[in-house]
Amino acid sequence: MSQEKQAEFLAENIKLKNTLNVINNETLSFIARRQYISDYIRKYREKILEEYKDDEDKVAEYFDHELYVKEEAYSTIDRKLKELTILKESPYFGRINFEDELSGELDNIYIGRFGLTEEGSYEPEIVDWRAPIASLFYHGGLGKAQYTAPDGKVDVDILGRRQLIVKKGQLKGIFDSAIDVKDEILQMVLSSNSNEKLQDIVMTIQEEQDKIIRASRSKTIVVNGVAGSGKTTIALHRVAYLLYNYRKELEGKVLILGPNSIFMEYISQVLPTLGETGVMQETFTNYAIEEIGLKESIIEYNEFLERVIGGDKEFIEDAKKKYSSEFIKELDDFIAYLEKNHFTFEQVKYFDEVIVDIDEINELYTNYYAYMPLFRRTQKMKRIIESKIKDKRNELVYKFDKELADTKASLSEEQLALVESDMDFRRNIRIREIVRESMDAKKRVASFLDNESIVELYKKFIKKERLSVFDLAPILYLMIKLDGKKAKNQFRHIIIDEAQDYSSLQFIVIRELTDCKHFTIVGDSNQRIVKFTEKAPMLDLCNVWNEKDIEHYELSKSYRSTYEIMQYANQYLNEEKIVPIVRNGKPVVTIKAESDEEIRDAVVDSINEFREEGFESIAVITKDVDELERINKIVNDRIHLFKFDNEYVIYRGGIVIIPSYYAKGLEFDAVVMIDSDKEEKKEDLIKYVISTRALHALTNVKIK
Ligand SMILES: Nc1ncnc2c1ncn2[C@@H]1O[C@H](COP(=O)(O)OP(=O)(O)OP(=O)(O)O)[C@@H](O)[C@H]1O
Questions:
Q1: How far is the CA of 328 from the centre of ligand 1 (A)?
Q2: Which of 273, 496, 559 to mutate to test the pocket of ligand 1 (most atoms within 8 A of CB)?
Q3: CATH of domain 563-703
Q4: Within 10 A of 30 (CB to CB), how many other CB atoms are there?
Q5: Pick the CATH number of 205-320+477-559 from 3.40.50.720, 3.40.50.300, 1.10.3720.10, 3.10.20.80
Q6: What does the pLDDT read at residue 60?
Q7: For residue 179, what pLDDT is reported?
Q8: Which of 560, 561, 577 to mutate to test the pocket of ligand 1 (most atoms within 8 A of CB)?
Q9: Ligand 1 atom nearest 206 alpha carbon
Q10: Phi then psi for 471, rounded to 5 degrees?
Q11: What's the gap in Å between 25 CA and the centre of ligand 1?
Q12: Where are the chain's structural domains?
């Protein structure tokens, strides 16, 4: 280390000690605050209990109130204490010094996972990575730059950018960036072994990624990026960024939709390590089933993909149809058909009197409530007619009672004494008749105004009893159009991951159901295992949603895989793709294996070599479950592989064997790809997905 560097290192060490002191003091101060609040609550509680010792209701009411106050008071303190505990290990990872172009003032900020300002001070000790000014750090280079402060854009000149590695409160290294120096920490992070779960990347977010993370909240953004370009990671960091900057508006109102439970589990750690909990994360299937309230079992995503990959022609045709725009048109026609034909109105009679005639009913239907969704409208009409029946019932009862009272009044006391009990008896009979007629009239109204359940109607429409995952969006569409359905929870921002597999209808349904205006949609149009339409609907959202304000981003660098792996994977795509180099690795190996022995040797030897090279997470990836079973049976006596054969398995470490569609979105240090295709297709998106799961090493075992 040069003398100058040594001096810098020393200075940073002193700064670190100071910061750690501030962290310690702040921690003690927050603990004291917590203690103060709990003492206060305790004393107040004793007073209340004494005051209301004979009033249980008041005591219960007090405890409800106390719980609320505690939650409110502690939530901020506990959040801060959690942040301080994390900061204690590593308070910051970046430093930027810059000159404000307007004022000429020099500034020096340290950027960390969370922000920290000492009590009584205005100068932040650490700036949260999500704060607007921290974007300067992610510009990557030195020189002129700009950030957006709350009161407008600020021009600065970045004079120095430093990355710092602090582990367990110790300074381990400093790296200064010059304009063209490669990001050394990024290289270090990318070359290391992958973890069991997706990690945060606050230290090494790249400029192209940062732009997406910080994109305006009020825009819908669509990111189409190659495998491993960080789409999932960015989407999750964007959630953390949005929550930090718009907590009041967005807390509890963000939804993340992912493809399956394995994937949801894989990404589950990122937001908590960024200090964010309480974001709803769901698969589209579960979300839709919950909203529909569907109780019956359906053909789930895995079976759907198994059938498609297995070449079940009838099923593929059916799926293709359900994904098409023509099908939306068919649904609309079906709705129009129901509007014309589903209901046959009848006049409503009460005894022999017509109380609502056909014209009146038609008027309600075609005119007065025509703006309402069909089934809402008929239910509304039902309520109106029921209320008329009730009025009629009351009128008849009133009339009868009035006549009875008049008759009674016209009788002498003696006459009344003779007939009164008989009159009362007759009254009871008459009232019962009137009430029964009211119930019968309501039943007659229900018989022509109630509708069949939408799920049942849909089944008749598609002429099938068993539903599949791709039927969920159409059912929701009918519920929206026929019933005016709205989602149980309202969301202000929705993230859709692996969006390349969404149909236009899914996009329409999510938007209409939730009334959400802002989306972050990420996917890779080349990772569609099933290419139902030429253009992935996620790339055509301005037409699908009929909205102009959509911002599109493309990402072409893979931060996951080596240059060699990406280059290899690209042979499976139709188009020639340029692979930007992020890092190099070893060449991809191809082994031909015909007999079971050869297959066993190829798979087991590859795994053993990977282990010897120090790779920790290793996967054998097959096309589908049948192939998984076949390979597992062949290698079983030599090696134990952990089978991911359904989406609810709980991974407990070890080498895995997994079908392509569950591996989507995941990554492994090294991958053995099972390639059983007899002939090479020009485009093979399944093999593209499989090969891009590997970070450092890939072996293709070609079998017959
Ligand atoms: N700026 C970065 N710094 C460090 N690691 C990064 C960066 N960007 C992405 N990565 C890493 O690259 C890998 C791929 O990221 P991620 O899974 O988010 O990509 P993806 O585009 O969603 O991939 P896929 O299309 O396969 O689902 C992850 O290990 C992630 O941590």
A1: 35
A2: 559
A3: 3.40.50.300
A4: 19
A5: 3.40.50.300
A6: 76
A7: 44
A8: 560
A9: 1
A10: -90, -10
A11: 37
A12: 1-181, 205-320+477-559, 348-449, 563-703
Name, in order, each residue with C-beta under 8 angstroms of 49's C-beta and a sequence gap of 6 or more.
Answer: 59, 62
| Angle, in degrees to the nearest 10, between helices 472-483 and 504-514 | 40
Q: Is residue 230 a known part of a binding site? A: yes
- Residue 693 CA, closest ligand 1 atom number: 26
Chain Cα centroid distance, residue 125: 34
pLDDT in the model for residue 50: 77
Pull the structure tokens for residue 243.
């929550």
Which two tokens mark 637?
Answer: 């006596």
Cα angle value 55/58/63 (rounded, 5°) = 125
Among 158, 185, 182, 159, CA closest to 174: 185
pLDDT recorded at residue 181: 46
Q: Give 31-47 pLDDT, tens digit per residue.
A: 998 888 877 777 877 77
* Residue 656 token pair: 């895995």
Q: Residue 182: what pLDDT?
A: 54
- The full 3-state SS of 518-550, as one line of letters, equals CEEEEECHHHCCCCCCCCCHHHHHHHHCCCCCE
> Which of 90, 88, 109 lies closest to 26 in space, CA to CA?
88
Write out residues in the chain with pLDDT < 70, as ranges: 1, 67, 178-182
Classify residue 701 as exposed, middle or buried by CB count within 10 Å of its CB (0-12, 13-18, 19+): buried
Cβ–Cβ contacts within 10 Å for residue 458, how many?
A: 20
Is this prediction's ipTM beyond 0.95?
yes
Q: Residues lining ligand 1, CB < 6 A?
A: 186, 189-190, 198-199, 201, 204-206, 209, 225, 227-233, 524, 527, 559-560, 665, 667, 692
Distance 672 CA to ligand 1 centre (A): 20
Query: DSSP for 109-171?
Result: EEEESS-B--TT-SS-SBEETTSGGGGGGGG-S-EEEEEEETTEEEEEEEEEEEEEEEETTEE
Q: How far is CA 494 from CA 101, 209, 250, 263, 284, in A?
A: 38, 19, 11, 17, 12
What pTM was estimated for this model as a whole? 0.89
What local confidence, expressed as pLDDT, does residue 65 receive?
75
Residue 526: partners with Cβ closer than 8 Å, 6 or more residues away: 226, 227, 500, 573, 685, 688
Take atom 25 of ligand 1 and give the residue whose Cα is closest: 227
Bridge partners (DSSP) of residue 699 are: 589, 672
Q: Among residues 470, 457, 498, which one has the least CA distance to residue 264?
A: 498
Q: Which pLDDT score is estimated for 24?
A: 96
Percent composition of the chain: helix, strand, coil (DSSP 3-state, to 5): 50, 15, 30
227 is in an annotated binding site: yes
Do the first three CATH levels of 205-320+477-559 and 563-703 match, i.e. the same topology? yes
